[in-house]
Amino acid sequence: MGIAEERIDRLVALADEAVAAGDPDRARKYVRRARRIAERNRLTLPRTVRRFTCDACDAYLRPGRNARVRLQEGHVVVRCDCGATARYPYE
Questions:
Q1: What does the radius of gyration of the chain's CA atoms come to, in whole angstroms?
Q2: Predicted local confidence at residue 35, as pLDDT
Q3: Which residue among 24, 25, 35, 74 has its CA within the 20 to 30 Å range from the CA of 55?
Q4: What is the pLDDT of residue 43?
Q5: H or E, element range at 18
Q6: d(CA 46, CA 91)
Q7: How far apart are the C-alpha atoms of 75 and 62, rounded to whole Å?
Q8: What's residue 1's pLDDT?
Q9: Are 32 and 69 in contact (CB under 8 A)?
C-alpha cells in the first residue's frame, strides 16, 4: 500500500468520525481532499468510499442521518440530502 492509499484511508476514517461527531462540513473537506489525492495519483477510490460519498456535494453519507437508502428491483438507491441519487446493482 502506497503513501497515497494510506492517506486516503486515513481521510475517509476522519470523515466518518467527523460525521458521527456532527460536523458534516469537516467531513466534506476530508472527502474532497481524498478525491483530489486519488485524482493526482491516478488511483480509484475504494468501493466503500465511492458508495458512501455523494458525487454532487462530496458529503460523507450516513444512512438515516443524511442519506436515504432504499431497495428496488435489482438495485440499491441512495439519495443524499442535496437531492442527488445513486443506484448500485445487487443480486
A1: 13
A2: 97
A3: 74
A4: 96
A5: helix 3-20
A6: 20
A7: 18
A8: 81
A9: no
Grid cell of 45 as nine digits? 477510490
pTM given for the model: 0.90
> Sheet harboring 75-80: ordered strands across?
67-72, 75-80, 85-89
Grid coordinates belonging to 53: 460519498
Averages of pLDDT over each 10 residues, the chain, 91 residues? 94 96 96 97 93 94 94 95 95 84
> In the chain, count of helices (H) and strands (E)?
3, 3
- Amino acid residing at 89: P
Cell numbers given for 78: 441512495
Cβ atoms 7, 41 nearer than 8 A: no
Query: What angle in degrees, to the nearest 10, is found between the helix axes of 3-20 and 24-40?
Result: 170
